[in-house]
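pasting for ref
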Amino acid sequence: MKNLTRRDFVKTTLGAGAAGLATPEILRALPSPSSELVTLGKTGIKVPRIAMGTGFHGFGGNSNQTRLGLKAFKELLFHGYDQGLNFFDMADQYGSHRYVKEVLKDLHRDKVVLLSKIWFSGGGGLEPTDRAVPSVDRYLRELGTDHLDICLIHCAQKHTWPSDLERMREEMNRLREAGKIRAVGVSCHSYQALKAAVDSPWTEVIFARINNRGQSMDRPDPEPVARLLSEARKKGKAVVGMKIFGAGKLTGEKQRRESIRYVWENGLVDAMTIGFEQKSHVDDSIKMLGSVI
């Protein structure tokens, strides 16, 4: 017997007259494009196709998500979690660790995937660093957990980042061996940095800016970036797309739907991170993804 989708469940199992009897708990248990898990490259880590981003306009220890306040922040993440979005995308610069810690108090740690990033270049209240251990140990204390599922070097822009940050990469390797990190990678903010990430054997997970219109991307033409992402995935690297909606510039429903379609139909990403600010934004993106997958 084939697996039932939520739509199949309501239509066939409950029937039209009984559809209203489906509780939210029952519907949450049914598969949907948002809750179906995919494996990130060769890491073995399984995630939904959408990550809950916590860093829209994030810098200096704040973001649009943390500026909502703790109560609204928790409600937003729980709204996504209840629909299968258990992948939380954080960073030191966003100031979101202590907020997510409060969310984790009501969840089982093994039911969520936690990703954070190390800001190495300085600014925003942080000193430049080429180390990973002090940052990750602090992140774990801030989150109240014993490990990160994924840790990224944050906002690499130079093609020389693998050699420039060799010490940081070595420390991240040791943290992984110690069980404090499960997978490592980099968040890229230039085409050159992205190419270096694709070429580097060290990189397991890549965050890359991608949408069909080249908005807030490394290049105005998305095709060179798309080719690199395809190459990365062929090499077994995990790719998580960011700026899918052009950092808020793709506002029309048709624009957003076309961007999601472009990313998924071309097989450019394993998952994507979106900085939702309202519950309706979560629902809208899940619905759009369902129309494409």
